[in-house]
Each structure stands twice: as structure tokens, then as C-alpha cells.
Amino acid sequence: MGRKWNNIKEKKASKDANTSRIYAKFGIEIYVAAKKGEPDPESNQALKFVLERAKTYNVPKAIIDRAIEKAKGAADENYEELRYEGFGPNGSMVIVDALTNNVNRTAASVRAAFNKNGGNMGVNGSVSYMFDATAVFGITGKSADEVIEILLEADVDVRDVVEEDDSVIVYAEPEQFHAVQEALRNVGITEFSVAELTMLPQNYITLPADAQAQFDKLIDALEELDDVQRVYHNVE
């Protein structure tokens, strides 16, 4: 499990270093979630989840409020949720999730990022079958045994609870996201270093130095695209 946690931490640290870009992407994600139902997180689970993620990235309240107000108003921008799958150097696997109001633009940009950085696009399902959708929480101030007891008392099933560095990490089925969160909140745990729905690879690979450098350029190129929300991969 340690490799999974380190991968998540590194990904989050990378995004934290690009705050303006990540804030803009959250603005779109919040807008889209708010447009799906009521612009109220108490009655809109999709919006509630996005706002929980935004909290762990310290997205300013002004950006959140502006996106929700836009969804309440006359704005009628239509975004599509898209997933692309592909391969990077040395058999590495990559999943790209996007939100776009121009499918042709996004497809061309993602394809170009792959082609220019030693990768190639795959068909739907060519990569995702090697990943598992997973809810992940990072908690401090509790031991793994304490967290397990909390979840057992709340009758919440999870995949695993492990201690990594100074954190306790909970891995659960995606549909258990809110159940896990509520169980922890009911005992006073309200701050999470990570609260994500992510795609975790079933197996990780290590790349030689030259391939790793090219792979890093591929991931950077994908994450820099305005339409791309998240990038998952199987490289340590």
C-alpha cells in the first residue's frame, strides 16, 4: 500500500505547486457538478464530493462561490466528461479524465501530448481494466487501530487501513466514500490530508532513467491541458 500512498502524495504535491491552474480546474468541476442538480451540497452528492476535494487543495471560497453562483444563473456552458486511455514509454499506462466544452479540441490536444512525448493513445478499456476505482482518505492524529475501531463501530466496510509516514490511510470502495467520511466525522475527524476518488493501478512499474524523464514530460504535458482534470498512471 505504501507505493499507492506515495504516488497519491506526489501527485497532490505537484498539483499544489500549480495553484492557479488547479483552482481554475476546480472552478469548472464545481460548476459542472452544481449544474447536474441543485446547487446545494446537502442535496447534490456530486457537488458535495467536489467541495470536499476542493477543501483538501485549499481552493479559496471566492472561487467556489463564483462557480456555484454561475451554475445558479443564466450561464449555460455544456461540458462533457471524457476519459482517454493510453500508453507511455516502456509499457507505462495512463488514464486521462477531462471536462470539455469542445470534444474535438480536447481529443486533439490529448493525442498530441501522447504523440510528442513517447506515448500513444489506446482504445477505451485498453488500460482501465488494470486500475481499480478507489476512495482514499488521509488522516493524522489517530492510529490505524483507532481508525479501524471507528469504522467497525459504524459498520463501514473498507479495503484496507494502513499507517504511512505520519498518516493513517483508508482505502475503500468508491460507493463507501460518504459512509467512511461520515463515520470519521462523527468522532470529530473533520480534516483530511486527502479525500479522493482515484484510480489506483493493480501493479506499479519502475522505469529506467531515460524513460522516466520522457514519462514525466508526458504527464506534465497532459496535466497542463486546461481541459484535463486528472491523470492516473502505474509508474512509481
UniProtKB/TrEMBL annotation:
User: Sorted alphabetically, which SUPFAM superfamilies does this protein's record hold?
Assistant: YebC-like
Which Gene3D superfamilies does the UniProt entry name for this protein?
Answer: 1.10.10.200, 3.30.70.980
Q: What is its main location?
A: cytoplasm
> Keywords of this protein's UniProt record, alphabetized?
Cytoplasm, DNA-binding, Transcription, Transcription regulation
Chain segments annotated as transmembrane: none
Which residue ranges does the record assign to the TACO1/YebC-like second and third domain? 79-235
Name the InterPro entries for this protein. Integrase-like_N, TACO1_YebC-like_2nd/3rd_dom, TACO1_YebC_N, Transcrip_reg_TACO1-like, Transcrip_reg_TACO1-like_dom3, Transcrip_reg_TACO1_YeeN, YebC-like
Which positions fall inside the TACO1/YebC-like N-terminal domain?
3-73
Location(s) in or outside the cell = Cytoplasm
Q: Which Pfam families match?
A: TACO1_YebC_N, Transcrip_reg
Q: Which family does it belong to?
A: Belongs to the TACO1 family. YeeN subfamily.
Q: Which PANTHER family match?
A: TRANSLATIONAL ACTIVATOR OF CYTOCHROME C OXIDASE 1
Q: What is this protein called?
A: Probable transcriptional regulatory protein PACILC2_34010
- Which organism does this sequence originate in? Paenibacillus cisolokensis
